[in-house]
Every structure is written in structure tokens, then in C-alpha cells.
Amino acid sequence: MNSLNEANLKALAGPRSYERGLGYLDAVSGVEVGDSRVTATVHGTEPYEVELVLEGPGGLGGECDCPYGLDGNFCKHLVALGLTVLADPAGSLPRQRKAARDRGQGLDAWLSGLSKEELLVLVREQVGEDRQLRRRLELRAASARGDLAGVRARMRELLDIAAFARYGYVEYADARAYADQVGQSVSAIRALTASGRSADAMALAREGMLLLTEAVESVDDSDGVLGQVGADLADAHLDACRTARCDPEELARWLVGHVLGDFDDLTGIDPIDYEDVLGERGMTLLRKLAVEAWRGNRTGWAEKHLMERLAKAGGDVDAVIAVHAADLAENGHTHLVIARELDTARRTDEALRWAERGIRDIRDLAAVDTALVDYLCDRYAQAARLPDAVVLRRDHFGARRTLFSYRQLRAAAQAADCWPAERESALDLLRADTERRQGGWYGGSVLVDALLDDKDTEAGWQAAAETGAHDRQWLALADQARETRPADALGVYLRLAEPLTKQTGNQVYEQLVSLLLSARDCHRRLGTLDEFTVYATALRTAQKRKRNLMRLMEQHGL
After folding, report:
1. Where are the alpha helices (DSSP H) in 469-528?
2. Which pairs with CB-CB distance under 8 Å and at least 24 residues apart come from 492-495?
3. How far is CA 175 from the centre of its chain?
4. Residue 56 CB: number of other CB atoms within 10 A?
5. How far is C-alpha 500 from the chain's CA centre?
6. Quick check: 50 and 24 in contact, CB under 8 A?
7. Pairing state between β 47-53 and 37-43
8. Which residue, among 26, 23, 21, has the nearest Cα to 52 in the 3D structure?
9. Residue 62 β-bridge partners
């Protein structure tokens, strides 16, 4: 219980989720305290089931079925439950946990004392009231009897979306319940394997994967819960294959067909996991079938992925390269993949040649995968080929004139001690662009951004005045020029503040107050603080109904 405190809640959730959790304290209901867990419903966008683990292998933890929680995060709903528990009267939680433990022990003792007939009466009563429990037990019974037809029929019922679908589609809110139902079929398949019917389990697992692939098209599986069920089905199939004395060649054909079909995205089956089941004969056929499929469709993603997987598992770097080389991307990305594979194999000279070939083969350097350019420049730097790095960065900047590529050119040229000359050439290109597109820039010209980034404030101000600039750029220029051009900077701040006075919202108020603080600093530098006082007083009078703005101005002495 020592792990449950505000500090640990904040550490697990992070400041943002913790602060948001404070707003959900009134949304917590149905709190149930167990020996080591606390469960509740927290009402957010919809009701979420939350479980806070008080003591476990990892200390304090928890789960929530909200989208953020399903990604494994400690969400605001868990924070709200934790703070609710901490807000209980002193000593309340330990007493509740002890009571829950006593109840559990009492229930176990009572059940242990019942006769077989009494337990049957109790189970039958629950089966009559709980449809899900009845289905689970029916499925287990069919599995225990070895009733393959019965298990198949029940599995088909479990995979049928009809009970959850609206207009033929399972909505997001019902997807988890459907996935829980489908998951029962996995338990039945595992039970068949455990009872010695592994061949039947293998066949049912394949059928289940097929049915699930068809069903997923009609389910909003945004959280990926059906993907987990698919992976569980694949695991059950592998377990059954390991127990059954299956034909390795039949299994190899099925695996290749499965991986190259429409099922692999859902189940994630890796044929290499079956190597111990396939044996040498099965693996030989698997490789043969994979090569045949790839030769028939060298650009197919599934065919390439299967070939690459088999080649990597066998340590055949040349085969991996051949797969990629048969379908080179126009932007040089595949060349980069090949270069990295060769680097891993310590064939660095070949890697460099492939990367350089990637640059040569590209028709338009503006479309290049920038990671390829970065890779080559890093290699040139390691080999003390700094002029080559500058040439490549220059060519890339010439094709793609952005602030980012300008910065990369600057870094390369500074390392090669030739930035002044390269800078003038780069700025000339940007000036030419600005002249051609004057007035047509969205977000401001790259020329102004580059001069700002170089801290060349005077040149940046001149370029902005001559060719125009975005408000974002004018604000940055004013911030940089405030010491040397306070009057000009003041004009920018006041111009940008004017439209904000006609808007509402805390974010707007924060922007407005920031501009006012900058304007006051300009007046201070100009020795005209009285003018600012008059301006601020008039603004407060005009905006007096905006209480949050008034409070913010007061906090900053405006």
C-alpha cells in the first residue's frame, strides 16, 4: 500500500495526465476494493473500466480500457481512481482490503465444503443466468469430449458478428466484447491439443484464422484487440503443430499460402517459428516455394518479406540484397536499406557504393529519401571526405530549398570551413525564389527564415520589408531586433496584438499578454513608458469583461 501516493501517481502518469485526472474525481463510481486491486468505473467520453493494482511485481500499476490506457499508458482515469482511494478516511482502505481478503477466503472455504451435487446445482444456476458462462462451458465440454463437430459449430457461433453488429458492422464500443467472445475459441482449441486431439486443433485453428480474417472487415478494431486474438490463434496453431505428427510438406505449403494470402497482417505468423516442426524436408520445400512465389512477383510486398525473412534467418546477405535490388524505390530508400544490410555484414565499401548509386539513380533529388543523404554525409564525414559532403548537401539544398536543408548545408560547410562562400550562393538561390514568388508564400519565405536562423537580423528585416513576411516571421524578427530597433519592433508587437483583442480564449489571452510584455520592454528602451501606461489602461477598460485576461494582465503587472 506504500506505493499508492500522489508522487507515484504523478510519476506513472506524467504531469499532463495527472493534472487531467484531477478533473475526473467526480466521475469515479462503483469503487470495489480487493486484496491487492481496486476497480471502478470512470465516466469519460464513455464509461471506462479501471483497475488499479496496489501491489504487484512492478509495484503500483493499473489498466484502463480507454484508448490511451489500452496502449499501455497510466491514464487520467487511473489517476482519478488512485486519488479517490487516497481521499478515503484514514484507515478505511486497509480495512476494506482485509475485508475483501476475508470474503475471498470465506467463499473458497464455503465452495470447498459443498458436495458434488451442491456444486452442480450452483453451476447450473449460474449457467442459466449467464449466457457467456454457458457458452464457455459448452465449448469446454465439447472439447473435453473430443466432439470436433460440436467445437467447430460453437467456434463459428463465437466468430459470428451478428450479436454485436448494427447494420452489419460492429462499432468501436462493441469490438472489445466481440473480441472477448472470440477469444473463447482459442481456449477450446488449446483444450483439444491438451486432450490429445492436436490434429483436430490444428485444423480448427486454421479455420478460426480464416473466419476471423473475414469478420475483421466488419469490425472497428481501432484498438487492435482482434489482432491479439489472431496472434493467440496463431500461437495455438503452432502448439498444435508441435504436438501433432503433421506432414512437414503439407505444413510448408500451408504456411506459404497463409503468409502470401490476406491473413498474415492479422495473425503475424512467422514461418521460421515452425522450423523445429518442419524439419529439413519441410524447410527445403518452404524455401523452394518462397523463391518460386518471389520470382513470379518480385515487387509483391508479401513475397519480398517472406524471402527476406528466410534469407536473414539463413544468414544469406546476398539473397537479402537480391530481393531488395529486384525492386528499387525511385527515391533511393531501397538503396539505403541495402547499404545498412551490408554495414551490418561489415561490408562497408559495398554499402557506400550502393548508397552513392542511390543518389546517381534518382532523377529528381527533391524526391530523395533524406535519410539516404544523411547516411552518405555521415559516411563522408567519417572518411574525412568533407568536401564531398558539402557537394551533396549543396545539391540537395538546390533541389529542395527548405530551412531544414539550409541548416544541413550550413553544418556541412562549417565543418569543411567553407561556409561564407556557400552561404552567399545559398542565399542567392533563396533571393531568386523570393523574387519569382513574391506575395505567394504560405507561411513566409525561406529566405527570411534562413536569415533569422543565421541571426542576421538586419538582412532578415530588410528581406521581410522588401518581399513580405509571415506574422510568425515578423514576431521572430521583432524579438531579435528589440535591442537595436525598439521602435520597429514595437510597431510589430502592437500590430499583432490588435486582432487578438477581438478574440477570446485563454490561449489567445496568453499570446496577447506576451505581446504586451514585449511592447512594454520596447517602450522602456525608448524611454516612453508613460505612453505604454496609457495604452494598457485603455486596453483594460475596453477588455474589462474578459475576466481571465484581466487576471493574467494583473499577474504580469500590466
Report:
1. 471-481, 486-500, 506-526
2. 493/518, 493/519, 493/522, 494/519, 494/535
3. 20
4. 12
5. 35
6. no
7. antiparallel
8. 21
9. 52
Closest CA to 221 of 70, 426, 374: 70
Whether residue 358 contacts residue 397, with contact meaning beta carbons closer than 8 Å, is answered with no
For residue 29, which phi and psi values (nearest 5 degrees)? -145, 165
Q: Are 92 and 76 in contact (CB under 8 A)?
A: no
Question: What is the Cα–Cα distance from 503 to 312, expressed in whole angstroms?
Answer: 60
- What's the pLDDT band for 59 if we cut at 50, 70, 90? confident
Q: Which triple of cell numbers denotes residue 281?
A: 524436408
Find the mean pLDDT for residues 407-432.
Answer: 94
Instruction: Report the pLDDT averaged over residues 312-340.
Output: 93
Going by C-beta distance under 8 Å and a sequence separation of 6 or more, which residues neighbour residue 505?
Answer: none
User: Taking the CA atoms of the chain, what radius of gyration do you get in angstroms?
Assistant: 34
The length of the chain is 558
* Closest alpha carbon to 223 in 272, 183, 175: 175
- In a 3-state reduction of DSSP, which class is residue 272? helix
Q: Contact 530/511 with Cβ under 8 angstroms?
A: no
Question: Alpha-carbon distance 303 to 290, whole Å?
Answer: 7
HEC profile for 344-374? HCCCHHHHHHHHHHHHHHCCCHHHCCHHHHH
Cell numbers linked to 387: 568536401
Phi, psi angle pair for 351, to nearest 5°: -60, -45
Helix 198-216 to helix 225-243 angle (10° resolution) is: 160
Sign of the CA dihedral with 423 first, then 426, 430, and 436 last = positive
35-44, 252-261, 381-390, 499-508: the lowest-pLDDT one: 35-44
Say how many C-beta atoms besides its own lie within 10 A of residue 539's C-beta.
17
Contact by Cβ (8 Å): 230, 264 = no
- Specify the pLDDT at position 263: 62
* Enclosing H/E stretch for 41: strand 37-43
Whether residue 234 contacts residue 241, with contact meaning beta carbons closer than 8 Å, is answered with no
Q: How many other C-beta atoms lie within 10 A of the C-beta of residue 527?
A: 9
* Cell 510597431 found at: 491
Please state, in angstroms and rounded to a whole number, the distance separating the CA atoms of residues 434 and 437.
5
Q: At 345, give phi and psi (nearest 5°).
A: -85, 5
Residue 149 has a pLDDT of 84
Instruction: Name the maximum alpha-carbon separation found in the chain.
Output: 97
- pTM summary value: 0.67
DSSP per-residue string spanning 299-319: T-HHHHHHHHHHHHHTT-HHH
Q: How far apart are CA 265 and CA 302, in angstroms?
A: 10
With contact defined as beta carbons under 8 Å apart, do 170 and 162 qualify?
no
Cβ neighbours of 551 (radius 10 Å): 10
Q: Name the 3-class secondary structure at 382.
A: helix
